[in-house]
Amino acid sequence: MLSGKTVKLVLYEVIQFACLSVPIFVIMERFASLMRHVRGGDLTAYWLVVAASIAYVTSVSLVVWVPLKYFILTSRRFISEITAWRPVALAYVIVCPLPCFGILLASSKVQTDGGHRFDHFTELGVSLVFTSLIVVDIVERIRPLPLTGQADGLEADFELPSPVLTHLEQVATVSSQLSPERGQNGSLRQVEPGTGSLGSRWRDTDGYATRASSASYLYSSRFPSGCLRFLWIREPRVEVFVDSFLFWMDTTEMLRAAEVSSVYYSNWIFPIHIVAYLSTLRLILPPSSPLLGVLGVFLQDLPFLVIRICLVALFGYVTPLLYIMKNLFVCLTYVYFIFLTKLKVFNRTSMF
């Protein structure tokens, strides 16, 4: 009987290998069909391309993928110390999206040079590549979390913190109140707890806390019970899926603009796919890496902004203006808060 960890490991490895091989097979088969149409129905070119795709996947699996996975599984201590980058993501970005983007560019070039337009579903390859890319990212991020039961630290989200301190006042410590009192004969007398001045001090403190509770503290509502209890639950495993898809939304929209017929059959498809592939290099870094911010600006937002402005100027509104504004605001805010705010003119406290 296989254990749960073994089943989860096998499931993850099968999913990642499928994300490696399926996009290559599908895109290469579409390219093989395109070559058959261009050559007038010649099946030789078709089967040569199909055989090349099978040989490529087999070679990459035996030379790169399987040795890397074996090394990771047998050297858990060494791999666990690598926190600045992800080896599996690096290997995947090199062996899968790179050749897929190359085949997509070759498909466009073949049709443009021959004056043909056989491919009427160009968006399939792009969606398949990025879906596989997102799935690999999700598997790498969700691997430490269990698939059944509650995730670690989830219990802390079941209840909202209460109370939340919003006002602080200096209060004397208990030790400072333990001052000795003198008796009738001049000798020192220790005050008993709950009696004398110390007892009155505790009563005053309790009264102060009661009076100040309404003004100095903000009490959050407790975690509700009943049928609507699930609305306050935060599930980190669900957030992994949401964050991964949102992380690549801008890149997929950039490639969607490249699938417009006027853009797809022009030379602008080359810079679009090049900058889109460069943006996928961010997958190498873990989500907690501080370098994601600067890489997002210089590998995504800045080149995407330039290309989108050029596309709108040449082909019209082939891309939504929302993404242009997103790239523009990200670049401007990055330059302002990272560089301009360090200047002396922006460090005056008299300003806003």
UniProtKB/TrEMBL annotation:
The transmembrane segments are 9-26, 46-68, 89-108, 120-139, 321-341
Q: Where is the composition biased (Polar residues)?
A: 177-188
- Annotated region (Disordered) at 177-202
UniProt KW Membrane keyword: yes
Taxonomy, superkingdom: Eukaryota
Q: Which InterPro entries does the entry mention?
A: Uncharacterised_FAM23-like_TM
| Keywords of this entry | Membrane, Transmembrane, Transmembrane helix
What PANTHER family does this protein map onto? TRANSMEMBRANE PROTEIN 236
Name of the protein in its database record: Transmembrane protein 236
> What phylogenetic lineage does the species belong to?
Eukaryota, Metazoa, Chordata, Craniata, Vertebrata
